[in-house]
Amino acid sequence: MSASRKKDPCKANACRIQACLNENNYQEDKCADVLEAMRQCCLKWHKVSLCCSGIDLEKPYLTEASKGAGKS
Fold this sequence. Notes:
- Belongs to the CMC4 family.
- Helix content is 38%, strand content 0%.
- By secondary structure, it is mostly helical.
- The longest helix has 14 residues, at 32-45.
- 19% of the residues are buried.
């Protein structure tokens, strides 16, 4: 599978991160669920996704304390 011929499998997640950060004045804690979704995508696709280059695969973005934060 060539990354240059196929759509990046994590691009949609990367776009969601940018939108979330923009909407929340770049406060990462408000976008933990979106960041974690990106990390999960990158765990699966990091070898072919250019969008994963800056994602720390070892750092979970959601903790037990933040899993319900900001949800109504």
